[in-house]
Amino acid sequence: PGNPDGRLALATAESLLGRHTRVVELLEGHLNSAQPGDRFLLGSSLSSIGRYKEAIPLLEEAVRVQPKEKSWYLSLAAAYSGALQTSQAAEVLRQAQNQWPEDLEVRLALVRQLLGSGNPATALGALNSSAGSTRSREELELYANCYVALNQLEQAERVARQAVDEGGAQVSSLIVLANILQLEGRNPDVIVALERYRKKYAQSAPYLLTLGISYFSTGNYNEASKLFEAAISIDPRMAQAHYLQGNTLASMGKPD
Predict the structure, then answer these.
(1) C-beta of residue 117 within 8 angstroms of C-beta of residue 86
(2) Among 101, 171, 221, 222, which is least packed, fewest CB within 10 Å?
(3) Maximum alpha-carbon separation in the chain
(4) Contact 225, 203 (CB under 8 A)
(5) What DSSP character marks residue 16?
(6) Digit-coded pLDDT (tens) for 27-68
(7) Interatomic CA distance for residues 213 and 177, integer angstroms
(8) How far apart are CA 168 and CA 6, in angstroms?
(9) 74-107 per-position pLDDT tens digit
(10) Whole-prediction pTM
(11) Nearest CA to 47 among 2, 4, 92?
C-alpha cells in the first residue's frame, strides 16, 4: 500500500483493461508530485467515466509538465469536448498539430472536433490542408460527413462510396454511405448496399440499426423489428434502437 510506483503500475494496467473506475479508486487522493503520468491516468479515467470538470485540471497539469506526449493532448481535448468547452478542445488540438503537423491522428481529431461543434467549412479546410494526395478511409468518411453538413449530398455520396470501395467495406464507411442515401430518401438502395454484408456485421449494433431504419422507412416493419431487437440485444444502452423499436411495434398494431 505504501509503494507509489506499484500503485501507478497497477493503475496503468487497469487503464489498459478499460477499468477506469478502478483507476480512479487507485489514484484519487494518492497523486505523486514527481509523477505527471499519474495525473494523466487519473484525468483520462475521470474523463472516460464522464467526470470531465475534474479531469480537465489534471490533464492540463500533465500537458504543462510534459508537453511532448501526443496522447495527453488528445485526452485533454476529449475532456474539454465532453465538458462542452469546444473552443478550448479545438485550441488544444491545434497546439498538438503545431507540434506534430504530419500526424494523421491529430489532424482527424481536430476535424472531428470542428465538425462536431458545427464548423463543417473549417473542418473541411483542415482536411484539405494535408499535402498528401492519398486519403485514408477515415479521412474519406470525414470528407463525406463534412459535405453532408454543408448539404452537398452528391459530393458526399461520391466520397462515401470511395471510402467503401477503397477501405474494404468497413462498417463505419457503410453507415456513412447509408446515412447519405437515407437523407436522399433512397432507402431501397440502402437495403441493397447493406444486405450484402449483413452476415459479416451481424454483431454490429449501429449497422443493424441503420439497416433497420431503411426497412422501417419502406414499410417492412417485421424486418425492421427484428433488426432493432438484435441491435438492442447487442447494446441495451442504445436509446435510438429502443425508440425505433417502439415506433415499429406501434406501426404493427402493438401499442402495448
Answers:
(1) yes
(2) 222
(3) 65
(4) no
(5) H
(6) 998 887 767 788 999 999 999 999 999 999 999 999 999 899
(7) 14
(8) 43
(9) 999 999 999 999 999 999 999 999 999 888 899 9
(10) 0.81
(11) 92
